[in-house]
């Protein structure tokens, strides 16, 4: 028995378990990818999820120290090609296999560190944070989808960034109350929580709409192995965006908008039929 392979396979299975426990929506999207892409994308999600947990969950601990240790272990795993943290072992395996850029990893960890401090998000810092917290995650996945095709990666790089930005901005809009009440921050530049109104909301929505439109152009050019899964994530977030868009600002400050599970199933079916009919 190849025990090294068993160790790696078991580590990848741990990332799959983490994804299933933390995000039913993301798991559903991964399952619609070609099967060979499942475990690599689970590995990326597991890494991202664990870093996010450090920042958002363990308030009774020194989160800066925890994140610094996680960062150190990440680079040790990447350098050695081994970690006894199964999440980091699975991640380094995928980084090496698909040539995921360390710059993406560094940008992601930098954005996680930004969340540990009180920040006033002016435009440059806002764009920097979105790049590191969302766009590079999409770029990591794009490396997997392109599987060594550098020309395809460069062609789809900008749309992938716009898709990640759209997702993150929708999250910011949906979670504007909890981000302010629990973390004392509003991510949108120049927006004062107490003066958040319909006009401000409309400006933000126009920016998000432009991101979605630019991203769709890239989705149409994805390899068939990845197209349905990415499109499903796109239509899910677009549905969430439209639900938010219909509500006045006061409602957004008073409730967290969700897409019901039965609607997710309908979105999956609709996406599948569009995919099968080659209408994406």
TrEMBL record:
Keywords: Transferase
Claim: Transferase is one of the keywords in the record: yes
Source species, domain of life: Bacteria
PROSITE patterns per UniProt: SQUALEN_PHYTOEN_SYN_2 (PS01045)
Protein name listed in UniProt: Phytoene/squalene synthase family protein
Organism from which the protein derives: Hymenobacter ruricola
């Amino acid at each position: 028995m190849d025990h090294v392979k068993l160790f790696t396979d078991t580590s990848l299975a741990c990332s799959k378990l983490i994804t299933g426990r933390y995000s039913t929506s993301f798991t559903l999207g991964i399952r619609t990818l070609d099967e060979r892409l499942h475990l690599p994308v689970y590995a990326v999600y597991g890494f991202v999820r664990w870093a996010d947990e450090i920042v958002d969950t363990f308030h009774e601990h020194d989160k800066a120290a925890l994140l610094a240790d996680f960062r150190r272990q990440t680079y040790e795993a990447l350098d050695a090609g081994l970690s006894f943290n199964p999440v980091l072992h699975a991640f380094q395996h995928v980084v090496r296999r698909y040539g995921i850029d360390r710059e993406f990893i560094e940008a992601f960890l930098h954005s996680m560190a930004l969340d540990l401090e009180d920040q006033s998000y002016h435009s440059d810092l806002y764009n920097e944070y979105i790049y590191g917290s969302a766009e590079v995650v999409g770029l990591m996945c794009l490396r997997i989808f392109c599987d060594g095709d550098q020309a395809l990666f460069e062609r789809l790089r900008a749309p992938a960034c716009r898709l990640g930005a759209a997702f993150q901005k929708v999250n910011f809009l949906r979670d504007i109350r909890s981000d302010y009440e629990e973390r004392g921050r509003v991510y949108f530049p120049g927006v004062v929580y107490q003066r958040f109104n319909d006009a401000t909301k409309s400006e933000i929505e126009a920016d998000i709409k432009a991101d979605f439109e630019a991203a769709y152009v890239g989705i149409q050019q994805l390899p068939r192995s990845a197209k349905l899964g990415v499109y499903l994530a796109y239509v899910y977030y677009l549905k969430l965006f439209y639900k938010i868009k219909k509500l006045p600002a006061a409602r957004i400050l008073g409730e967290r908008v969700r897409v019901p599970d039965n609607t997710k199933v309908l979105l999956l079916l609709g996406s599948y039929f569009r995919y099968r009919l080659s209408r994406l």
